[in-house]
Each structure stands twice: as C-alpha cells, then as structure tokens.
Write a structure and sequence with these properties.
Elements: H1 6-15, E1 31-34, E2 39-43, E3 46-47, E4 52-53, E5 57-61, E6 68-71, E7 83-87, E8 90-94, E9 103-108, E10 113-119, E11 128-133, E12 136-140, E13 152-156, E14 163-164, E15 176-181, E16 184-188, E17 199-204, E18 209-215
Antiparallel strand pairs: 1-2, 2-5, 3-4, 5-6, 7-8, 8-9, 9-10, 11-12, 12-13, 13-14, 15-16, 16-17, 17-18
Length: 219
C-alpha cells in the first residue's frame, strides 16, 4: 500500500526552490483523485480567498523536479467534501456540499468535459469511498445536510444505479476509507455525529459484516 502526503510534497519542493509558486488553488476540503503514481486531480474545495466553495479542477504532476499543474474543464458545480475515484478508467465524482447533492459526474478526457452519469441513493457530502475491485465502487457514510448516516452504497459495472450495501456499525462522516484487499474495506476515524471517533472498522465483503479492527493511537 502506497500513501502519499501531498501537502508535504508540495511544501518540500517549494522549500528546495524547485517551484516558484503554489500552482493549485489555495483551498481546503478539496477532492484528490490519483490518476497514476505521479499525477492526481484536485477538484473543488473551500477557498478562504473566495469565501466559499469553488469549481476549479487541476492535474498535478509530481513526476519531475518541477511541480506542474494543468487546468482542465471546471467541475459542473462548486463544491467540497465529495467522493471520487477512477471508475471504469475515468475520474468519477459523487456527492459534495455547496448545497448537498446526489449528483455524480465523470470526466471525459477526449472532450475535456464533465458528464452526468449517476445519482446517489440520497444527497450526501463528507462521505468515504474506494474501489473494491476494478468493477465495484463502494461509498460509505456521509452527511445529508440534516443528518449523519451509516449507510453504504454500491455500484458495479453491471448495475444501472447505486444499491444499498451493508449498514455501517455507527454513523460515519469525514472519515478515511481504503480497500485493503479484494475482500476487505477499512474505514478509519471520522465524525460520529457528536465527536471524532478513533475506531477502525473492517468490512468483510464475503460475509458482508463489519468488525472492530483497531483503535487509532492519539497523543
């Protein structure tokens, strides 16, 4: 498993004089989608300079000594805290705030445009997500704008829409979700509606049950 600390990479390059500007728009809560081991998309986010969410999208390239960013077509709506991944070979984004939405869009490389593809079961922001395998995308938890939820949503290549998956053991939002192997999804931390919870849970995709895995050590 490879974990990249994006902000640290940008800062360290700048300190070494390898870049003369911070090429991404200065935002928080933006969505990162890895295209490959050296490139990722930065989508939307909250800009304190603007005073709200934005719709800008950039491709950041870490492959050379000079960090480079290239703008692509703006996302169809200004938003932050969405879920996204490379699904069926294309960047796909679902949900997000800026008026919590159930909309999903996919980036068309050839046309340089975002196209509507799906709808979530319910409008959500602050949700987690990961590809379980090359054919299944699992989204978890989130915030409806009124309530925090414990639902999961699953969409496979042969599915026409998202379907409900195994209910989570507690409310989750603003959490981290990773696929450990083809049969296991891990969810770490996150907000439980009243506080931040350090518990780690594993979803066994064979029996579709959640299991306590670990407590995150904090200092």
């Amino acid at each position: 498993m490879r974990i990249v600390l994006l902000a640290s990479q940008v800062k360290s390059n700048a300190e070494r004089g390898k870049v003369n500007r911070f090429c991404c728009y200065p935002t928080v809560f933006q969505l990162h989608i890895s295209i490959d081991l050296s490139k990722f998309l930065v989508i939307g986010g909250y800009s304190y300079r603007v005073g709200g969410v934005i719709d800008t999208v950039e491709v950041v390239d870490l492959s050379s000594d000079n960090l480079s960013c290239s703008p692509v077509a703006n996302y169809p709506r200004a938003q932050d805290v969405a879920a996204g991944d490379i699904v069926e070979g294309r960047p796909r984004v679902c949900g997000g705030s800026g008026g919590t939405t159930d909309l999903c869009f996919e980036y068309n490389y050839e046309e340089n445009q975002w196209e509507g593809v799906d709808s979530l079961i319910t409008p959500l922001s602050s949700l987690g997500g990961s590809l379980v395998n090359s054919a299944t995308w699992l989204l978890s938890g989130g915030y409806t704008g009124d309530d925090y939820v414990s639902l999961t949503q699953v969409r496979g290549l042969d599915d026409d829409e998202f379907r409900s998956g195994p209910t989570m053991p507690r409310i989750f939002s603003r959490h981290c979700q990773v696929t450990v192997d083809p049969n296991t999804v891990m969810v770490l931390g996150g907000y439980n509606g009243t506080d931040y919870d350090p518990t780690v849970y594993n979803l066994d995709l064979v029996d579709e049950n959640w299991y306590d895995f670990h407590i995150i050590v904090t200092s």
